[in-house]
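We emphasize that the prediction below concerns an isolated chain of 280 residues; any contacts that depend on oligomerization or on bound cofactors are therefore not represented. The input was used exactly as deposited, without trimming of termini.
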Amino acid sequence: MSTHVAVVTDSTASLPDQLVRQWGIKVIQLQLQVADRIDDESRFDRGQLVDSLEAGLPVATSPPDPGAFFWTYQDAASAGASAVVSVHISGRMSATVHAARQAAEQVRIPVYVLDSATVGMSLGFAVLSAARAAAAGAQVNRVVEAAERRFTSSSELLFVDTLEYLRRGGRIGAASALLGTALSIKPLLTVKRGEVAPLTRIPGARRAMNKLLDIAAQRAGNHPTELAVSTFRRSDREMNLVHQLRERIPNVRDLTVVEASSVVGAHVGPGSMSITVSPV
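Result of the prediction step, given as a token string:
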């Protein structure tokens, strides 16, 4: 009997295509709506989405249809998988996990749907750990454990130019306490108990980024760590951030620069950047 375990996630994991192909991960697309157009987030031009956000056009997001999960799980079963581990964005941010669970009930092989209680590369690193365990022939319980261990130990540290996009999209969570601060005050955020939460607020973007580096270095300590820098709109800032992270954090196993999911970017805004600290 096959012991192959298939690994599925959603597009908010922000995984680069190369890693998705390398580890055989199946990615379900969340939906974007810009004005009257609704489609998979991967089908939207990022530059045009940034222009739409900055112009104040209506932008909304929604979870995948349960059918997208059903057929992905069915395809895994047809390819010989004995089980599926499906790891997704926090249920407090999206109904994606609910859609996955609906589909899992209709599939003839076991499907383990995990709510990561996070988003971005904190989710992405968890998915990679699960996929590596599956590729090594691990039983399904070990694949689940690999994902859970990773997403519970990772930290998502986020810089945003403004809280306005989170407020518009209804994803502001506990960070609403920072609303109404002066424009020069830059909020630093994290994901806590499945929702966006405040870390601190710092005057000026440069000082805020330096503080974000301080927090990342503190979270990493001397442990072997994988890091990711995620950005919605590419600039020179991320490479400067990479250089400083390598200087500040002594035991970096890997450091990846990724493009944030467009769905995530729609909620945090064009000027956002994040650092994911994920102990190995």
